[in-house]
Amino acid sequence: PTNSYLEEELSKRCKLFRLWETPPEKRREFLRANAASIRALVGNSGVGADAEMIDALPALEIVASFGVGLDKVDLAKCRKKGIRVTNTPDVLTDDVADLAIGLALATMRRICEADRYVRSGAWKAKGDYKLTSKFSGKTVGIIGLGRIGLAIAERAEAFDCPISYYSRSEKPHTNYKYHSSVVDLAANCHVLIVACALTEETRHIVNREVMDALGPKGVLVNVGRGAHVDEPELVSALLEGRLGGAALDVFEQEPHVPEQLFGLDNVVLVPHAGSGTWETRKAMADLVLGNLEAHATNKPLLTPVV
Ligand code: 8YV
Protein backbone atom coordinates (compact mmCIF):
# COMPACT_ATOMS: atom_id res chain seq x y z
CA PRO A 1 0.00 0.00 0.00
CA THR A 2 2.55 2.72 1.02
CA ASN A 3 -0.31 4.63 2.66
CA SER A 4 0.43 4.84 6.37
CA TYR A 5 -3.21 5.09 7.46
CA LEU A 6 -4.17 2.06 5.39
CA GLU A 7 -1.14 0.13 6.62
CA GLU A 8 -1.96 0.92 10.25
CA GLU A 9 -5.63 0.00 9.92
CA LEU A 10 -4.84 -3.20 8.03
CA SER A 11 -2.36 -4.31 10.66
CA LYS A 12 -4.98 -3.76 13.39
CA ARG A 13 -7.39 -6.08 11.59
CA CYS A 14 -5.26 -8.70 9.83
CA LYS A 15 -1.88 -10.32 9.71
CA LEU A 16 -0.23 -7.99 7.25
CA PHE A 17 2.46 -9.27 4.87
CA ARG A 18 4.50 -6.30 3.65
CA LEU A 19 5.39 -7.38 0.15
CA TRP A 20 6.31 -3.81 -0.79
CA GLU A 21 9.10 -3.81 1.80
CA THR A 22 10.62 -6.93 0.26
CA PRO A 23 13.24 -6.22 -2.43
CA PRO A 24 11.92 -7.20 -5.90
CA GLU A 25 14.39 -10.07 -6.26
CA LYS A 26 13.18 -11.62 -2.98
CA ARG A 27 9.43 -11.26 -3.63
CA ARG A 28 8.96 -14.64 -5.26
CA GLU A 29 10.54 -16.37 -2.25
CA PHE A 30 8.51 -14.20 0.16
CA LEU A 31 5.29 -15.16 -1.60
CA ARG A 32 6.19 -18.83 -1.61
CA ALA A 33 6.96 -18.78 2.11
CA ASN A 34 3.66 -17.11 3.03
CA ALA A 35 1.36 -18.30 0.23
CA ALA A 36 -0.78 -20.55 2.40
CA SER A 37 -1.74 -17.66 4.71
CA ILE A 38 -2.41 -14.91 2.15
CA ARG A 39 -6.15 -14.67 1.50
CA ALA A 40 -6.38 -11.03 0.44
CA LEU A 41 -4.17 -8.85 -1.69
CA VAL A 42 -4.15 -5.05 -1.54
CA GLY A 43 -2.71 -3.67 -4.76
CA ASN A 44 -2.30 -0.22 -6.25
CA SER A 45 -1.46 1.31 -9.60
CA GLY A 46 2.08 -0.08 -9.36
CA VAL A 47 1.58 -3.62 -8.08
CA GLY A 48 -1.55 -5.57 -8.88
CA ALA A 49 -2.49 -9.18 -9.32
CA ASP A 50 -1.11 -10.48 -12.58
CA ALA A 51 -1.34 -14.13 -13.60
CA GLU A 52 1.97 -14.98 -11.94
CA MET A 53 0.92 -13.42 -8.62
CA ILE A 54 -2.44 -15.18 -8.69
CA ASP A 55 -0.77 -18.53 -9.40
CA ALA A 56 1.65 -17.94 -6.53
CA LEU A 57 -1.23 -17.42 -4.06
CA PRO A 58 -3.50 -20.47 -4.01
CA ALA A 59 -5.41 -19.27 -0.90
CA LEU A 60 -6.23 -15.89 -2.46
CA GLU A 61 -9.92 -14.92 -2.12
CA ILE A 62 -9.98 -11.20 -2.86
CA VAL A 63 -7.94 -8.47 -4.56
CA ALA A 64 -8.80 -5.07 -3.07
CA SER A 65 -7.19 -2.40 -5.22
CA PHE A 66 -6.19 0.93 -3.70
CA GLY A 67 -7.12 2.83 -6.86
CA VAL A 68 -9.75 2.88 -9.58
CA GLY A 69 -7.61 1.63 -12.50
CA LEU A 70 -7.52 -2.15 -12.84
CA ASP A 71 -4.95 -2.54 -15.60
CA LYS A 72 -2.58 -4.37 -13.23
CA VAL A 73 -5.20 -6.96 -12.26
CA ASP A 74 -5.84 -10.01 -14.43
CA LEU A 75 -9.63 -9.76 -14.20
CA ALA A 76 -10.29 -12.74 -16.47
CA LYS A 77 -8.14 -15.00 -14.33
CA CYS A 78 -9.76 -13.74 -11.12
CA ARG A 79 -13.18 -14.40 -12.62
CA LYS A 80 -12.16 -17.91 -13.62
CA LYS A 81 -10.74 -18.74 -10.20
CA GLY A 82 -13.60 -17.16 -8.24
CA ILE A 83 -11.36 -14.46 -6.76
CA ARG A 84 -13.28 -11.30 -5.91
CA VAL A 85 -11.94 -7.91 -7.05
CA THR A 86 -12.75 -4.42 -5.75
CA ASN A 87 -11.43 -0.92 -6.58
CA THR A 88 -11.95 2.64 -5.28
CA PRO A 89 -14.16 4.49 -7.79
CA ASP A 90 -15.95 7.81 -7.16
CA VAL A 91 -13.96 8.92 -4.10
CA LEU A 92 -11.01 10.04 -6.27
CA THR A 93 -12.97 11.51 -9.19
CA ASP A 94 -12.87 15.13 -7.96
CA ASP A 95 -9.13 15.10 -7.32
CA VAL A 96 -8.18 13.62 -10.66
CA ALA A 97 -10.52 15.99 -12.53
CA ASP A 98 -9.21 18.96 -10.51
CA LEU A 99 -5.66 18.00 -11.42
CA ALA A 100 -6.51 17.62 -15.12
CA ILE A 101 -7.83 21.20 -15.23
CA GLY A 102 -4.89 22.39 -13.13
CA LEU A 103 -2.47 20.76 -15.56
CA ALA A 104 -4.14 22.35 -18.59
CA LEU A 105 -3.95 25.75 -16.88
CA ALA A 106 -0.37 25.19 -15.72
CA THR A 107 0.76 24.28 -19.22
CA MET A 108 -1.07 27.00 -21.12
CA ARG A 109 -0.39 29.79 -18.62
CA ARG A 110 3.13 28.43 -18.01
CA ILE A 111 2.57 28.56 -14.25
CA CYS A 112 5.54 26.33 -13.39
CA GLU A 113 7.92 28.18 -15.70
CA ALA A 114 6.67 31.55 -14.41
CA ASP A 115 7.29 30.37 -10.86
CA ARG A 116 10.86 29.47 -11.83
CA TYR A 117 11.17 32.90 -13.47
CA VAL A 118 10.40 34.63 -10.18
CA ARG A 119 12.49 32.33 -7.98
CA SER A 120 15.57 32.62 -10.19
CA GLY A 121 15.50 36.41 -9.95
CA ALA A 122 14.78 36.71 -13.70
CA TRP A 123 11.80 39.02 -13.11
CA LYS A 124 14.08 41.60 -11.51
CA ALA A 125 16.87 41.04 -13.99
CA LYS A 126 14.92 40.69 -17.26
CA GLY A 127 11.56 42.34 -16.60
CA ASP A 128 8.08 41.14 -17.42
CA TYR A 129 7.36 37.51 -18.19
CA LYS A 130 6.42 36.49 -21.73
CA LEU A 131 2.77 36.21 -22.80
CA THR A 132 1.02 32.85 -22.56
CA SER A 133 -2.12 31.15 -24.00
CA LYS A 134 -5.66 31.61 -22.77
CA PHE A 135 -7.44 28.49 -21.49
CA SER A 136 -11.02 29.76 -21.05
CA GLY A 137 -13.08 29.19 -24.16
CA LYS A 138 -10.68 26.72 -25.80
CA THR A 139 -12.12 23.44 -27.06
CA VAL A 140 -11.42 20.57 -24.70
CA GLY A 141 -11.39 17.03 -26.11
CA ILE A 142 -11.68 14.18 -23.65
CA ILE A 143 -10.75 10.55 -24.31
CA GLY A 144 -13.09 8.47 -22.14
CA LEU A 145 -16.28 9.96 -20.77
CA GLY A 146 -16.58 7.82 -17.65
CA ARG A 147 -16.76 9.18 -14.12
CA ILE A 148 -13.48 11.10 -14.35
CA GLY A 149 -13.96 12.26 -17.95
CA LEU A 150 -17.40 13.61 -17.09
CA ALA A 151 -16.07 15.43 -14.02
CA ILE A 152 -13.39 17.04 -16.20
CA ALA A 153 -16.05 18.06 -18.76
CA GLU A 154 -18.19 19.66 -16.05
CA ARG A 155 -15.23 21.66 -14.76
CA ALA A 156 -14.14 22.73 -18.25
CA GLU A 157 -17.70 23.92 -18.96
CA ALA A 158 -17.28 26.45 -16.16
CA PHE A 159 -14.36 27.86 -18.19
CA ASP A 160 -16.70 28.21 -21.21
CA CYS A 161 -14.80 25.52 -23.05
CA PRO A 162 -16.75 23.66 -25.76
CA ILE A 163 -16.45 19.94 -24.93
CA SER A 164 -15.96 17.07 -27.33
CA TYR A 165 -15.08 13.48 -26.56
CA TYR A 166 -14.11 10.08 -27.86
CA SER A 167 -15.34 6.84 -26.34
CA ARG A 168 -16.21 3.40 -27.69
CA SER A 169 -19.80 4.51 -28.18
CA GLU A 170 -21.73 7.75 -28.06
CA LYS A 171 -23.07 8.56 -24.58
CA PRO A 172 -26.75 9.43 -24.26
CA HIS A 173 -27.79 12.42 -22.15
CA THR A 174 -24.86 14.72 -22.92
CA ASN A 175 -24.62 17.78 -25.12
CA TYR A 176 -20.94 17.16 -25.71
CA LYS A 177 -19.80 16.55 -29.28
CA TYR A 178 -18.97 12.92 -29.99
CA HIS A 179 -16.13 11.84 -32.29
CA SER A 180 -15.90 8.17 -33.25
CA SER A 181 -12.17 8.54 -33.97
CA VAL A 182 -9.45 9.87 -31.68
CA VAL A 183 -7.67 11.48 -34.65
CA ASP A 184 -10.83 13.47 -35.50
CA LEU A 185 -11.18 14.48 -31.86
CA ALA A 186 -7.55 15.64 -31.72
CA ALA A 187 -7.85 17.54 -35.00
CA ASN A 188 -10.85 19.43 -33.61
CA CYS A 189 -9.75 20.36 -30.12
CA HIS A 190 -7.14 22.53 -28.47
CA VAL A 191 -6.61 20.61 -25.25
CA LEU A 192 -6.76 16.81 -25.42
CA ILE A 193 -7.22 15.08 -22.06
CA VAL A 194 -6.76 11.33 -21.56
CA ALA A 195 -9.15 10.00 -18.92
CA CYS A 196 -10.02 6.46 -19.98
CA ALA A 197 -9.13 3.07 -18.53
CA LEU A 198 -6.04 1.30 -19.85
CA THR A 199 -6.99 -1.79 -21.84
CA GLU A 200 -5.54 -3.53 -24.89
CA GLU A 201 -7.69 -1.25 -27.09
CA THR A 202 -6.56 1.98 -25.40
CA ARG A 203 -2.83 1.19 -25.18
CA HIS A 204 -1.03 3.92 -27.20
CA ILE A 205 -4.38 5.46 -28.09
CA VAL A 206 -2.43 8.71 -28.35
CA ASN A 207 0.01 7.80 -31.13
CA ARG A 208 1.99 9.91 -33.59
CA GLU A 209 -1.03 10.46 -35.85
CA VAL A 210 -3.09 11.76 -32.93
CA MET A 211 -0.26 14.04 -31.75
CA ASP A 212 0.14 15.45 -35.27
CA ALA A 213 -3.63 16.02 -35.50
CA LEU A 214 -3.49 17.92 -32.18
CA GLY A 215 -0.66 19.94 -33.66
CA PRO A 216 1.80 22.68 -32.67
CA LYS A 217 -0.86 24.72 -30.85
CA GLY A 218 -2.41 21.72 -29.12
CA VAL A 219 -1.84 20.59 -25.55
CA LEU A 220 -1.97 16.99 -24.32
CA VAL A 221 -2.95 16.24 -20.71
CA ASN A 222 -2.64 12.67 -19.42
CA VAL A 223 -4.25 11.69 -16.12
CA GLY A 224 -4.94 8.11 -17.23
CA ARG A 225 -2.00 5.73 -17.56
CA GLY A 226 1.42 6.27 -19.09
CA ALA A 227 0.82 3.53 -21.64
CA HIS A 228 -2.08 5.46 -23.17
CA VAL A 229 0.56 7.59 -24.86
CA ASP A 230 3.39 6.45 -27.12
CA GLU A 231 6.05 8.11 -24.97
CA PRO A 232 9.02 8.10 -27.42
CA GLU A 233 6.70 9.63 -30.05
CA LEU A 234 5.57 12.24 -27.52
CA VAL A 235 9.16 13.17 -26.75
CA SER A 236 9.90 13.57 -30.49
CA ALA A 237 6.72 15.59 -31.12
CA LEU A 238 7.62 17.98 -28.28
CA LEU A 239 11.31 18.27 -29.21
CA GLU A 240 10.42 18.90 -32.87
CA GLY A 241 7.70 21.43 -32.00
CA ARG A 242 4.98 19.34 -33.65
CA LEU A 243 2.99 19.46 -30.40
CA GLY A 244 2.31 22.65 -28.44
CA GLY A 245 2.71 21.26 -24.94
CA ALA A 246 2.06 18.37 -22.60
CA ALA A 247 1.12 17.87 -18.97
CA LEU A 248 1.66 14.40 -17.63
CA ASP A 249 0.69 12.80 -14.33
CA VAL A 250 1.53 9.29 -15.56
CA PHE A 251 4.39 7.66 -17.46
CA GLU A 252 5.10 4.39 -19.21
CA GLN A 253 7.86 3.25 -16.81
CA GLU A 254 7.10 4.99 -13.51
CA PRO A 255 9.03 6.40 -11.72
CA HIS A 256 11.23 6.78 -14.81
CA VAL A 257 10.45 9.91 -16.81
CA PRO A 258 12.17 10.62 -20.15
CA GLU A 259 14.91 13.11 -19.25
CA GLN A 260 14.59 14.87 -22.63
CA LEU A 261 11.40 16.38 -21.17
CA PHE A 262 13.20 18.01 -18.24
CA GLY A 263 14.45 20.95 -20.27
CA LEU A 264 11.12 21.78 -21.95
CA ASP A 265 9.15 24.70 -20.54
CA ASN A 266 5.96 23.72 -22.39
CA VAL A 267 5.84 20.52 -20.36
CA VAL A 268 4.51 20.03 -16.82
CA LEU A 269 5.42 16.83 -14.99
CA VAL A 270 3.65 15.42 -11.93
CA PRO A 271 4.66 12.15 -10.17
CA HIS A 272 1.39 10.18 -10.50
CA ALA A 273 -0.38 12.24 -7.86
CA GLY A 274 -3.90 12.57 -9.31
CA SER A 275 -5.57 11.06 -6.25
CA GLY A 276 -2.86 12.23 -3.88
CA THR A 277 -4.66 14.38 -1.33
CA TRP A 278 -5.08 13.55 2.36
CA GLU A 279 -8.84 13.57 1.99
CA THR A 280 -9.02 11.27 -1.00
CA ARG A 281 -6.34 8.81 0.04
CA LYS A 282 -8.17 8.37 3.39
CA ALA A 283 -11.46 7.79 1.56
CA MET A 284 -9.73 5.28 -0.76
CA ALA A 285 -8.20 3.48 2.24
CA ASP A 286 -11.59 3.34 3.99
CA LEU A 287 -13.09 1.81 0.86
CA VAL A 288 -10.37 -0.86 0.72
CA LEU A 289 -10.96 -1.64 4.43
CA GLY A 290 -14.74 -1.66 3.96
CA ASN A 291 -14.49 -4.10 1.06
CA LEU A 292 -12.18 -6.44 2.99
CA GLU A 293 -14.46 -6.33 6.00
CA ALA A 294 -17.55 -7.01 3.88
CA HIS A 295 -15.77 -9.98 2.32
CA ALA A 296 -14.66 -11.34 5.71
CA THR A 297 -18.19 -11.09 7.13
CA ASN A 298 -19.97 -12.43 4.05
CA LYS A 299 -21.69 -9.14 3.27
CA PRO A 300 -22.07 -7.61 -0.21
CA LEU A 301 -18.85 -5.92 -1.33
CA LEU A 302 -19.03 -2.08 -1.41
CA THR A 303 -17.44 -1.59 -4.84
CA PRO A 304 -17.22 -4.99 -6.54
CA VAL A 305 -15.65 -5.40 -9.97
CA VAL A 306 -15.54 -9.21 -10.00
C1 8YV B 1 -3.26 5.12 -7.59
C2 8YV B 1 -4.53 5.50 -9.57
O1 8YV B 1 -4.00 4.01 -7.34
O2 8YV B 1 -6.75 5.15 -8.92
C3 8YV B 1 -5.88 4.91 -9.72
O3 8YV B 1 -6.08 4.16 -10.70
O4 8YV B 1 -3.74 5.47 -10.45
C4 8YV B 1 -4.12 6.12 -8.28
O5 8YV B 1 -5.18 6.53 -7.50
C5 8YV B 1 -2.65 5.60 -6.34
O6 8YV B 1 -1.67 6.47 -6.71
C6 8YV B 1 -2.01 4.48 -5.53
O7 8YV B 1 -1.05 3.82 -6.30
UniProtKB/TrEMBL annotation:
Belongs to the D-isomer specific 2-hydroxyacid dehydrogenase family. The keyword NADP applies. One of its GO terms (molecular function) is glyoxylate reductase (NADPH) activity. CDD domains: HPPR. Residues 8-305 form the D-isomer specific 2-hydroxyacid dehydrogenase catalytic domain. It comes from Phoenix dactylifera. InterPro entries: D-isomer_2-hydroxyacid_DH, D-isomer_2_OHA_DH_cat_dom, D-isomer_DH_CS1, D-isomer_DH_NAD-bd, NAD(P)-bd_dom_sf. This is Hydroxyphenylpyruvate reductase-like. It comes from the Eukaryota. Residues 101-274 form the D-isomer specific 2-hydroxyacid dehydrogenase NAD-binding domain. One of its GO terms (cellular component) is cytosol. Pfam families: 2-Hacid_dh, 2-Hacid_dh_C. Keywords: NAD, NADP, Oxidoreductase.
